[in-house]
Amino acid sequence: MTFRQHIRLAGAIVALAIFPLADIASAQDWPARNVTVVVPLGAGSASDIMARVVMDQVGRQLGKTFIIENRPGAGGTVGANVVANSTPDGYTILAYGALGTAHALYTKLPYDTLTAFAPVIPFGLQPLVLITAPAKGYKTLGADHRARKGLQDAARSRRRW
User: Fold this and answer.
1) Are 114 and 84 in contact, with CB atoms under 8 Å apart?
2) Closest to 83 (Cα-Cα) out of 56, 46, 110
3) How far is CA 105 from CA 31, 47, 77, 95, in A?
4) What confidence category does residue 145 fall into, taking pLDDT thresholds of 50, 70 and 90?
5) Does the pTM exceed 0.85?
């Protein structure tokens, strides 16, 4: 499946997840106005492109505009903080998948990751690649792992939705 097909499938999944809940969740139609989608990374990043493609399709199907707002900085913390401090009315959404990373990087965050956000739906997967200069001599991450006893082998960790 191509990248574009993955994006279209993700948009369809989001739309299918939203439509059945519209009648059940409340008597009020959602969205009654435009929705802001905060991407805490720079414009043109993989997260930004995925959010724009998926939310454009969701907006077309729901008849409202989903505005993508890039708020990069501090490893995603700036944008996440904007959403954490917004009114919890469903009209400000965070499109970001690395909230757990911030806990590992920063000792004090301006929000509590576990209580400030409510997961809605995963809408894409982004592969990560570890790259180093050839002069470093690494053949595999495992070789470095064996050289440094106690280092976690995160390369084998897999989370499936």
Assistant:
1) no
2) 110
3) 35, 19, 10, 19
4) low
5) no
